[in-house]
TrEMBL record:
<comment type="similarity">
    <text>Belongs to the class-I pyridine nucleotide-disulfide oxidoreductase family.</text>
</comment>
<dbReference type="Pfam" id="PF02852">
    <property type="entry name" value="Pyr_redox_dim"/>
</dbReference>
<feature type="domain" description="FAD/NAD(P)-binding">
    <location>
        <begin position="4"/>
        <end position="311"/>
    </location>
</feature>
<feature type="domain" description="Pyridine nucleotide-disulphide oxidoreductase dimerisation">
    <location>
        <begin position="350"/>
        <end position="456"/>
    </location>
</feature>
<dbReference type="InterPro" id="IPR023753">
    <property type="entry name" value="FAD/NAD-binding_dom"/>
</dbReference>
<keyword id="KW-0285">Flavoprotein</keyword>
<keyword id="KW-0274">FAD</keyword>
<dbReference type="InterPro" id="IPR001100">
    <property type="entry name" value="Pyr_nuc-diS_OxRdtase"/>
</dbReference>
<keyword id="KW-0520">NAD</keyword>
<dbReference type="InterPro" id="IPR036188">
    <property type="entry name" value="FAD/NAD-bd_sf"/>
</dbReference>
<dbReference type="InterPro" id="IPR016156">
    <property type="entry name" value="FAD/NAD-linked_Rdtase_dimer_sf"/>
</dbReference>
<dbReference type="InterPro" id="IPR004099">
    <property type="entry name" value="Pyr_nucl-diS_OxRdtase_dimer"/>
</dbReference>
<protein>
    <submittedName>
        <fullName>NAD(P)/FAD-dependent oxidoreductase</fullName>
    </submittedName>
</protein>
<dbReference type="InterPro" id="IPR050151">
    <property type="entry name" value="Class-I_Pyr_Nuc-Dis_Oxidored"/>
</dbReference>
<dbReference type="Pfam" id="PF07992">
    <property type="entry name" value="Pyr_redox_2"/>
</dbReference>
Length: 466
C-alpha cells in the first residue's frame, strides 16, 4: 500500500494540470494513466484534428489573396499533412509527457485505476490511499448511438478519424456537431467524398447564422449534406464497404463511417459503484469541483459534464488543484463567485472555436439562450466582410459578427464570429463577457486599423451610445 496526499485518475491535459497545481501547493501527488500521458486532446482530438485541418486552411488563405494565389500551382500534399499530424502526436509516443510529469515532482503510475473505497484506489491489484483527496479526471468517450448494425460495422470514432494513416475514398459522417463538422471539412479537403447525416442539423447550440455559413461552405467543398435525416441501419459487407440506410429511404455506400453524435462519461469501469454512485453517469460537482455529497472526491474536465472542452477542463483543473492543496493544508478557500478556487466561468462565459472553413468562434450566451434566461436582450449584427481588415486578409472574405447585450446592465453576455481566422477575435470577447465590461467603457478600447478587430468599433456603432 502506497499513500499520497492526492491521487489523480487520468493523465490527460486536465489531469496533468490538477496534479501540477496540487503539487505546486506542496502535496505529494500520484497521477494514474491506463493509456497515453497527455490523453485524448494530445493524441486523438484537439491537436491531431487541427493538424489535419491546418494545411488546407493555409492553402485556401493563399488562394484567396491576389498575388499569392497566382503562386499556388499545386494541391495539398496529403501524405505530408498526415506526416505533420503524426509529428504533433509524437507518433503516439508519450515519453516526453511522462518526462514532464517526473520533472514536476509527480509520481506517474501506469495502469487501470478503480476506486475501491473512501480515498482508496486500486491500480492493477495494488491498493493506494489518499490522505486528502481523489480526483477523477477520466474524460469521455464517443457516444455510440443505437442504430441497427452500427456496432458490427466497426465504425470510426474521433480516435480512428484523427489517427488514420490513409484517407478513404469515401466517408459517411453521422452527426452535425463540432467534431462532425470539423472532420467532414478535413476529410473532404484531403480527398474523401464525404456525406454527412445530421438529424438535428449543423452546429446546434450556436447562433443560426453560424450553421448557415458552415453549411454553405461544406456544400461548396462538395460535401453531401443530408440534414434532418438520420441513419436507421448500417451494414459493412464482405468487401469492407459500408451501406448506411437513412430515414428518408435513401442509402449511401462508403468506405468508412464516422460516428460523431456526442460523448459519454468514462465512469463505467471507474469503480464508482463502490462508493454509492452509478457507473456510466456523469459526476456532478459544485463550483470547487467536489462531487456532490463527498468531501474527498473531485471530478474535473469532461467527466463532470460542465463544459466538454480542453481549455475549460484545464481552467477547472487549476481551480481544483489549488483548492485541494488549500483544504489539505488548512488554508483559506476562496469559493465565492470568481474566486481563485472555483470554476465560475463554466456557467456563462465558455469560449469555443469550431475550426471549419469558415471558423466559428463564440463565447457566452446565444441570443436565444439569453432570452430563455429572461435577460433583456439587444442583438447587434455586423457583416465582417465590410471591415477594412477583412478585405485585406481575403479577396473573397465572407463572415458575420454578433454581440448579445444585456440591456438592463449594458454589458455583453455573448458574442459569435464566423469567418476566416475569427478565433483571433475570441479572447477579446471573452474578456468583455467575463469582465462584464460596460458598453460605455468598451468605446474607449480602440481597435487597430486596418485589422479585422475593427469589427468591435462597428458593432458599437450599430449598438449606439448607451
Amino acid at each position: 500500500m502506497t499513500t499520497y496526499d492526492l491521487i489523480v485518475i487520468g493523465a490527460g491535459a486536465v489531469g496533468e494540470n490538477v496534479a501540477d497545481y496540487a503539487a505546486r501547493g506542496g502535496l505529494k501527488v500520484a497521477l494514474v494513466e491506463a493509456e497515453l500521458v497527455g490523453g485524448e486532446c494530445s493524441y486523438w482530438a484537439c491537436m491531431p484534428s487541427k493538424a489535419l485541418l491546418m494545411s488546407t486552411s493555409a492553402l485556401d488563405a493563399a488562394k484567396a489573396v491576389g498575388g499569392a494565389k497566382q503562386a499556388v500551382t499545386g494541391d495539398v500534399d496529403v501524405q505530408a499533412v498526415l506526416d505533420r499530424r503524426n509529428s504533433f502526436t509524437s507518433n503516439w509516443d508519450d515519453s516526453s509527457q511522462a518526462d514532464w510529469v517526473a520533472s514536476a515532482g509527480i509520481d506517474l503510475i501506469r495502469g487501470h485505476a478503480t476506486i475501491t473505497g473512501v480515498r482508496e484506489v486500486t491500480i492493477d491489484g495494488t491498493v493506494h490511499t489518499a490522505t486528502h483527496a481523489v480526483a477523477a479526471v477520466t474524460g469521455s468517450n464517443a457516444l455510440m448511438p443505437d442504430i441497427d448494425g452500427l456496432k458490427d460495422a466497426k465504425p470510426w470514432s474521433n480516435r480512428e478519424a484523427t489517427s488514420a494513416q490513409t484517407i478513404p475514398s469515401s466517408l459517411m459522417v453521422i452527426g452535425g456537431g463540432v467534431v462532425a463538422a470539423e472532420l467532414a471539412t478535413a476529410y473532404q479537403q484531403l480527398g474523401a467524398k464525404v456525406t454527412v447525416a445530421a438529424r438535428s442539423g449543423l452546429l446546434g447550440g450556436q447562433e443560426p447564422f453560424a450553421a448557415d455559413l458552415v453549411q454553405e461552405s461544406l456544400e461548396a467543398l462538395g460535401v453531401d449534406l443530408r440534414l434532418h435525416t438520420s441513419p436507421i441501419s448500417v451494414v459493412r459487407d464482405e468487401h469492407g464497404l459500408v451501406t448506411t440506410t437513412l430515414s428518408d429511404g435513401s442509402t449511401v455506400v462508403t468506405d468508412e463511417v464516422l460516428v460523431a453524435t456526442g460523448r459519454v462519461p468514462r465512469t463505467l469501469d471507474l469503480g464508482v459503484e463502490n462508493i454509492g454512485l452509478t457507473p456510466g453517469d456523469w459526476l456532478e460537482v459544485d463550483d470547487t469541483l467536489l462531487v456532490n455529497g463527498f468531501d474527498w472526491l473531485y471530478a474535473v474536465g469532461d467527466v463532470n459534464h460542465r463544459a466538454l472542452l480542453t481549455h475549460q477542463g484545464k481552467y477547472q483543473a487549476r481551480a481544483a488543484g489549488e483548492v485541494i492543496a488549500a483544504r489539505a493544508l488548512g488554508e483559506g478557500v476562496h469559493a465565492e463567485p470568481w474566486g481563485a478556487h472555483v470554476a465560475t466561468a463554466d456557467h456563462a462565459a465558455v469560449p469555443q472555436v469550431t475550426f471549419t472553413n469558415p471558423e466559428v468562434a463564440s463565447v457566452g450566451l446565444t441570443a436565444d439562450a439569453a432570452q430563455k434566461q429572461g435577460i433583456d436582450v439587444k442583438v447587434v449584427d455586423y457583416d465582417l466582410a465590410a471591415v477594412a481588415g477583412s478585405s485585406l486578409k481575403s479577396d473573397t472574405y465572407k463572415g458575420q459578427a454578433r454581440i448579445v447585450v444585456d440591456e438592463s446592465r449594458k454589458v455583453i453576455v455573448g458574442a459569435t464570429f464566423v469567418g476566416p481566422d475569427v478565433s483571433d477575435l475570441l479572447h477579446a470577447a471573452t474578456i468583455a463577457v467575463v469582465g462584464e465590461v460596460p458598453i460605455d467603457r468598451l468605446w474607449h478600447a480602440v481597435p487597430s486599423y486596418p485589422t479585422v478587430s475593427e469589427v468591435w468599433l462597428r458593432l458599437l456603432d450599430a449598438y449606439g451610445r448607451p
